[in-house]
Each structure stands twice: as structure tokens, then as C-alpha cells.
Design goal:
By secondary structure, the protein is α/β, with parallel strands linked by helices. The chain folds into two domains: 27 residues; 160 residues, Rossmann fold. It is globular. The structure holds flavin mononucleotide (FMN).
């Protein structure tokens, strides 16, 4: 095959890939079985979780508090503050259909609350630490200007060396809808081990 024929051949393969709506990178990503588990009070972390799950071809699960937090921002902050500072494990509802044994990598999403993860996330991680033994886990969080603060460190501390804790990432909550490319890049990088 000469150079021109080779170039034609590559072009044809790329064309077929484009028509079928996949990329070679995505093909590789799908080999790792992923789940995204998240808690969200006002929707920012939900948007991040949905975006990451689409990119990763992951199953998506929501953590819900047994008793929801107050829907008023100030009241929610007041309610959450002692729980966050005291590392309280707020009761959560069981997540139907989630079998962690099926997954290689579990992304865990939380809003930054008082510098740490939201209590329902702390509860879920603590309750499921055993089932996540030997797996890869990766935190993402959304925040209101504080960035990562203590969230990543405290998340990693819960696991110790029982799981492979991948590098966490913080996303601004107020600009989450314009962060799709960054969220997708985050998903791809962690799946490929970066
Ligand atoms: C109870 C509460 C405490 C918060 N504490 C912080 C904080 O300490 N630092 C910060 O950057 N943002 C803080 N925020 C802002 C949220 O982290 C931010 O709006 C986040 O994107 C919300 O995610 P959600 O829409 O998924 O609930 C707080 C919000 C609430 C409701």
C-alpha cells in the first residue's frame, strides 16, 4: 500500500467512526466499568454527576438524606454546620439497584459544605468503604468559591489504603453548566489512570 492509499484508508476508518458517533478514546474508556454516586442539594453536583456519567458510560446513583435538609439556603446552612463540623453521619436512604461489586471505578460527588463533604456523602462512603475495598474511587465536588478545602483530604482519610483513591477535583458550582468540557476531561483522565 502506498502513502496515498494508506491515507485514504485511515480517512475511511475515521469517517466510519464519526458516523457511528464514537471515538477511539471512548471505546477504551468503556472497558472500565464505572458508577457515579452523588448527593446534591441545589443541583450543581447533580449536573456534574450526570455529565461525568455520560462521558464515562457509567451507571448513576443519587444519595438521599432520610430527612431532607431545609430548602431555604440559610436554614440549610444552619442545619448542616454542626453536622459538618462534628463529622456526623446523617441517615440516608438505601440506594436501590446499586451493587458495588460490579464496578472497577466509583466516582463520588459531593457539594462542599462548610469546607468538607456533605454529611450524606460521609455516611455513604463510611457505610460502603468495605464494599469498595480494592477498587478505584474518585471524588469530585462542587463549591461556592472555597475550592477543595478539606473535602478531598477527609474523603481519602475515610479509605486509608483500603481503596485506590484517585486525585479529586473541585468544580465551581455557579459555573458548572459551562464546565462540561472540564468535567468530561476529568472523567476521561481518571478512567485512563491519570
Ligand atoms: C450548607 C451549605 C454549606 C456550604 N458551605 C460551603 C463552603 O464551606 N465552601 C464553599 O465553597 N461553598 C459552600 N457552599 C456552596 C456549595 O458548595 C455550592 O453551591 C455547591 O455547588 C452546591 O452543590 P449542589 O447544588 O449540588 O447542592 C455551601 C452550601 C450549602 C448549602
Amino acid at each position: 500500500m502506498n502513502r496515498r492509499e494508506f491515507a485514504k484508508c485511515i480517512g475511511a476508518v475515521a469517517g466510519v467512526a464519526a458516523i457511528h458517533g464514537f471515538s477511539f478514546a471512548n471505546e477504551g474508556e468503556k472497558k472500565m466499568k464505572c458508577a457515579v454516586v452523588y448527593f446534591s442539594w441545589s443541583g450543581n453536583t447533580r449536573f456534574a454527576a450526570e455529565t461525568i456519567s455520560k462521558k464515562a458510560g457509567a451507571d448513576l446513583f443519587e444519595i438521599k438524606a432520610e430527612t431532607p435538609y431545609n430548602s431555604n439556603y440559610g436554614k440549610c446552612c444552619d442545619e448542616a454546620q454542626p453536622e459538618c463540623y462534628g463529622k456526623t453521619l446523617r441517615q440516608i436512604k438505601p440506594i436501590e439497584g446499586l451493587d458495588l461489586a460490579k464496578y472497577d471505578l466509583v466516582f463520588v460527588g459531593s457539594p462542599n459544605w462548610w469546607g468538607t463533604m456533605a454529611p450524606p456523602v460521609r455516611t455513604w462512603v463510611t457505610q460502603n468503604k468495605g464494599a469498595l475495598t480494592g477498587k478505584s474511587v474518585c471524588l469530585f465536588q462542587t463549591h461556592g468559591g472555597g475550592g477543595m478545602q478539606r473535602v478531598g483530604k477527609e474523603f481519602a482519610e475515610i479509605f486509608g489504603d483500603t481503596a485506590k483513591v484517585l486525585s479529586p477535583k473541585a468544580f465551581s458550582g455557579s459555573s458548572i453548566k459551562s464546565s462540561v468540557a472540564a468535567l468530561e476531561a476529568f472523567a476521561s483522565e481518571r478512567i485512563s489512570g491519570k
